[in-house]
Design brief:
The chain contains 8 helices and 17 strands. By secondary structure, it is an alpha+beta fold. The strands form 4 sheets. A 6-stranded antiparallel β-sheet has the order 1-9-8-7-4-5. It has a 6-stranded antiparallel β-sheet with strand order 10-11-12-14-13-15. The two termini are 39 Å apart. The N terminus is likely disordered. It binds adenosine monophosphate (AMP) and zinc ion. The site of zinc ion has 6 residues, from helix 8. The site of adenosine monophosphate has 12 residues, from helix 3. It is found in: Nucleus, Nucleolus; Nucleus, Nucleoplasm.
C-alpha cells in the first residue's frame, strides 16, 4: 500500500483525524467524486469519497491505517497535548496493555496500491478503475464496457463489464437477464471482429469464484498462449467447470432467477494439468505450454 504525504509540489494536504483537507493551488484539474475543485479552493475528503488529480489519472481514497506509535497522525491528537485530561493514567495503562493502536487517515493511491496488495483489499477493486480508463476500453455502449484483461491468459482476453454496479454472479437476479444477454451479444461481436477469429476458437464465461469485484464476463481465445498464464490455478480456472459458460448463467437466471455455483469449486483449481484439446496430462506448466504449441503454432 502506498501512502502519500503530499499531492504535488503545489497542492497542500492536511490530515485532520477523520477527514483530509486538500487545498488546490496548481492548474491541473482536480475533483472529489465528480465535483471539480477550483484553484484556490479547499475541500474535505471523507472516507468513501474519491479524489482525482490530473484529469482523473490519479485516484485516491482515504483509508484508516493502524499506527501503533501514534506519532504519525499528521496532527497532534488532543490526548497528546499538555492540557488533555480525558484519560486517567490507569485508563492509559489499560490501553497500552491492550496494545490498542491508533487509526490514522491516509490517502491511498489506487494505482500503487494495486501493485502491493495482490490478495484482496484494493487489488480486488482494480476492474472498477480499469473500466473507466479510456486506454483499457475496447468498446462501450450505454450498458456495458469491454476492456483488455490486464494480465491476459491467452492471445485474446477481454472482459465485458456492466456500467451498473453488480459485485458478483451471486448478486445477479431475474431482472439482470437482459443485461447478461447483452453482455453475451457484445462478447460475440468482439469475437467476430477479431482478425484471428477464423483460426482461433473463443469461450465466454464467468469464474465460479471471482477474485475481482464487479461482475465480469471473460472472453478468451483458447490458445492460452500468454506469459501471464503462470500456474495451475490460472489454467484450471479457464479449462474446468470453474469456468461457467455465459449461456449457462443466462439459463440459470431464466429458470431460477439466480446463479448457483456448485460446492467445491475451489477444488477444481487443484486438478491435474490436462490439455483442453486432447486431454493429455502434463506434469508442469512449462511442459503444458510446450505441448500447447503443437495445437496452436504461431
Ligand atoms: P476473476 O475475478 O478470477 O474472474 O478474474 C479477474 C480478471 O481480471 C483476471 O483475468 C485478471 O487478469 C484481470 N485483472 C486483474 N486486475 C485487473 C485490472 N486492474 N484491470 C484489468 N484486468 C485486471
Ligand atoms: Zn493436447
Amino acid at each position: 500500500m502506498s501512502v502519500i504525504t503530499y499531492m504535488s509540489s503545489t497542492d497542500s494536504l492536511t490530515c485532520v483525524l477523520s477527514l483530509i483537507l486538500v487545498l488546490k493551488l496548481g492548474t491541473n484539474p482536480t475533483s472529489v467524486d465528480s465535483v471539480v475543485v477550483g484553484t484556490g479552493n479547499e475541500v474535505r475528503i471523507k472516507p468513501g469519497q474519491r479524489l482525482h488529480i490530473v484529469n482523473q489519472l490519479y485516484p485516491y481514497t482515504i483509508q484508516f491505517k493502524e499506527d501503533p506509535t501514534g506519532k504519525n497522525s499528521g496532527t497532534k491528537r488532543p490526548r497528546e497535548s499538555a492540557s488533555d485530561d480525558r484519560e486517567s493514567p490507569r485508563e492509559a495503562q489499560k490501553m497500552k496493555a491492550a496494545k490498542l493502536t491508533e487509526k490514522v487517515p491516509v490517502l491511498v493511491n489506487h494505482g500503487e496500491a494495486q501493485k502491493h496488495t495482490e490478495r484482496g483489499g484494493l487489488w480486488s477493486q482494480g476492474l472498477k478503475i480499469s473500466m473507466q480508463d479510456p486506454k483499457m476500453q475496447l468498446y462501450k455502449d450505454d450498458k456495458v464496457v469491454v476492456i483488455k484483461d490486464k494480465y491476459p491468459k491467452a492471445r485474446h482476453h477481454w472482459l465485458v463489464l456492466p456500467w451498473q454496479s453488480i459485485p458478483s454472479l451471486k448478486a445477479l437476479c431475474e431482472e439482470h437477464c437482459d443485461l447478461v444477454k447483452h453482455m453475451q451479444q457484445v462478447a460475440d461481436q468482439m469475437v467476430q471482429q477479431c482478425p484471428d477469429s477464423s483460426s482461433l476458437s473463443f469461450r465466454t464465461g464467468y469464474h465460479a469464484i471471482p477474485s475481482m469485484s464487479h461482475v465480469h464476463l471473460h472472453v478468451i481465445s483458447q490458445d492460452f498462449d500468454s506469459p501471464c498464464l503462470k500456474n495451475k490455478k490460472h489454467w484450471n480456472s479457464f479449462t474446468t467447470d470453474y469456468f461457467i459458460e455465459s449461456n449457462d448463467v443466462i439459463q440459470m437466471l431464466e429458470t431460477n432467477g439466480r446463479v448457483t455455483v456448485k460446492e467445491g469449486a475451489t477444488e477444481l483449481l487443484k486438478l491435474p494439468l490436462c490439455c483442453h484439446m486432447c486431454h493429455k496430462e502434463l506434469s508442469t506448466i512449462p511442459a503444458l505450454k510446450e505441448h500447447l504449441k503443437s495445437h496452436f503454432p504461431r
